Amino acid sequence: MTVPVTDSELRAFDGSLRSAGQKRLTQREIRLAFAAACPQRAAAPDARAVLHALLTALAARQAIRLPDPRRWDDSQTPPLPTSLELLRDPSAEPAATQVPWHPALAFAASERHPASREALLQINAWLQSHPSLLPPAPLRERALHIFGDEQRLDAFQSPDGLFAGRLPAARIGVIDTPPPLAHEMQPAALGGPLLVLAGLASYDSVRRWNAGALAFSAVVHGGGSALLSAVEALQGLAQRSRAAQLFYFGDLDADGLAILDQLRRQLPSVQPHLNLYRWLLRHGCRSSPGSAAAMAPVNPAAGWPPDLAAAIGALFASGQRIAQENFGSRELHGWPSGVPRGS
Predict the structure, then answer these.
(1) Burial per residue of 29-45, b for 16 or more beta-carbon CB atoms within 10 angstroms, e otherwise
(2) Cα separation of 28 and 319, whole Å?
(3) Low-confidence ranges of the chain (pLDDT < 50)
(4) Which CATH number fits domain 182-332: 3.30.300.20, 3.40.1360.10, 3.30.230.10, 3.30.1540.10?
(5) Which side of the chain, N or C, has fewer Cβ within a 10 Å radius?
């Protein structure tokens, strides 16, 4: 397990390494720099693991170059390099050097982290020569265009964008690449309803059953954040299957209903498959949620009729949940063929 280190520790260690004024440092010099930058951690029982984590992080940021693994000291765990090479430190450039930053990179003028600044300089050069940003591309393709290395931008990625959200990915022509939705379409049932199932086991059972029953034009597997990031793909699938209705079926618990609620905010045409939820409430095995988190109330806007909303509210009030897997391959054998009504 990698020992966590902070950005401030990384900056202090990087500065301590560079203070020696040498391009190459021996293992002894590396240890001295570590002790000077992080004295408390250098004296701790896990000091070797901390030093390994610091060196690995600096190498990932391309602030240092580590030797071939054959030249590491593996007498203890984890192994440590016997030497390292410091890479160029952009923050040490003369103050008089002025970079004509692209407007999207205005924040880069104050960037002092060597690896980040080096990457920003390369992005800046690419933007200057590719003002149209066309054609748009996924992140790893764009990284290959800019750096010749498809993984180079991975280390600078965050949920808010690149470089801690300071550079939206769209500003360098990057498009989202949501994961594909697993699905099975039935050409003979085009025009029928589409059913999204949150669980993989439920999806597989219904998919196999639907191949003969033709109850749904398409059966889709999608749950959690993966489904919420693939709404556009779900819309396209509904159009190709000519789905008259879009239904969702997942666990009867706070997380399951929260996903449905968030999905309907993006795609209001999606409705809970009411008959399947009714079946769960009548026949499903009830269990504890497995955490102390409070069960969320049913959102009336999600399309629940009053009687079903009350039954789900009572379930949650009792501190219980029902997994969608209660309705599986065994129960499907007793489900009438043809299109099962969603309400």
Answers:
(1) bbbbbbebbbeebbeee
(2) 59
(3) 90, 93-96, 291-294, 301, 337-340
(4) 3.40.1360.10
(5) N
